[in-house]
Task: inverse folding
């Protein structure tokens, strides 16, 4: 027996309608609150996740072939920053400059790859964690004076995180009534 997929449409009331074989319209469960979520946050997640995975790949190469470049990056940040980095400069020297294979692997490979994979997720809850992790990473870059790189990303990430959080919250909303009723 062949199973035929019936074309569905969403009515203005938010109810899904299916045309039956007899041409009649039958309704099914209501559409998610607010209708279909927008696609652009998912696309932003794909781009951001891909960028973070690319960064993790680059850090993998640097950690294995040229770990001394992390010490040079620290001086580059100091020269680039519009203000004195103070304790951040010392923190960089004690971590990335002195132990680049450890910190390059933990932050540059592990953290970037983890938040990148989470940002690529179809699940809005996981994507929200990944996008939040990317935003924290960009805030860290802001603290080091990389405004020209981090600020445009944050301008895109903040609304994406808000819309993704709403989608994740709507995903957890009970269907067909209230809890405990």
Result:
């Amino acid at each position: 027996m062949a199973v035929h997929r019936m074309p569905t449409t969403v009515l203005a009331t938010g109810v899904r309608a299916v045309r039956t074989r007899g041409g009649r319209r039958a309704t099914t469960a209501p559409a998610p609150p607010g209708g279909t979520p927008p696609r652009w946050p998912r696309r932003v997640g794909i781009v951001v996740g891909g960028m973070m995975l690319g960064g993790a790949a680059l850090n993998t190469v640097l950690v294995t072939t040229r770990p001394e470049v992390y010490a040079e990056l620290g001086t580059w940040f100091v020269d680039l920053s519009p203000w004195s980095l103070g304790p951040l400069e010392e923190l960089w020297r004690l971590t990335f400059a002195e132990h680049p294979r450890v910190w390059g692997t933990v932050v540059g490979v592990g953290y970037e790859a983890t938040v990148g994979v989470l940002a690529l997720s179809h699940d809005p809850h996981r994507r929200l964690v990944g996008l939040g992790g990317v935003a924290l990473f960009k805030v860290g870059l802001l603290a080091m004076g990389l405004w020209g790189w981090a600020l445009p990303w944050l301008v895109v990430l903040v609304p994406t995180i808000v819309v993704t959080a709403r989608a994740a919250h709507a995903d957890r909303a009970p269907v067909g009534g209230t809890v405990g009723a």
Remarks:
- The chain has one domain: 40-169.
- The beta strands are 8-10, 15-19, 25-30.
